[in-house]
Amino acid sequence: MRSVPKTGDAFAEALVRVRAVVIRPEFRLDEAPAPSRLAPSALALTAESADPGSDRASGRFVLLHDPDGVDEWAGTFRAVVFVRAALEHDLIGDPLLNEVGWSWLVESLAGAGAECTQAGGTVTCSDGQSFGSMADRPADSFVEIRASWTPITTDGTPVELGMDRHVEAWIDLLAHATGLMPMPHGISQVSAPRRRERG
Predict the structure, then answer these.
(1) What is the domain range of residue 140?
(2) Angle at the Cα of 168 (from 91 to 48), degrees rounded to 5?
């Protein structure tokens, strides 16, 4: 991955931690163009299924940094994530599905040891039905999770030193949404995902 820090050493250290993350082999991680107007420094990552023939899951992670802090963030960093995953059609009618989707995020943050505050977001479940000449297509059902939070630490260490945990939490959320079994943190993967640099 390639990114040029625009301000301060904290963001540069956060990038080092993010680059060191080894994710599950079921996903491929890439860098994407980062938003330039939301904060002085930003990094964007995308995740997709490692299987070239699968489009069942995708996600986006954006890390924002303003060394002066932002009142709405209550901090100097902000993580913004998006996850989209295909669902079994019969799950769409479950009245608890939205709450379950949010619980995936809470569990992923806790499991990764990613401490945070000011967390918020939405869970959207959609069901698409085809008609006419496309009526023979199966129904498309998806869950989409949009969330953001402010990374913090409670032991006095600089928050940027734990930024890898927030990326891991995002990947865990994607795994939850796709129905993959949990994988203990700190376990090395047999095969590492390919990372492409965008020039």
Answers:
(1) 8-183
(2) 60
Distance in angstroms (rounded) separating the CA atoms of residues 179 and 187: 19
Whether the pTM exceeds 0.70: the reply is: yes
Query: Which tens digits make up the pLDDT trace of 132-149?
Result: 777 676 667 888 999 999
In a domain, 2, yes or no: no
Count of domains for the chain? 1
Within a domain: residue 62?
A: yes
Can you list the positions of beta strands (E) in the chain?
A: 27-32, 41-49, 57-70, 75-86, 116-128, 140-151, 195-196
How does pLDDT run across 140-191, given as a tens digit for each residue? 788 899 999 999 999 999 999 999 999 999 999 999 998 886 665 554 343 3
**At residue 23, what is the residue type?**
I
Which amino acid is located at 5 in the chain? Answer: P
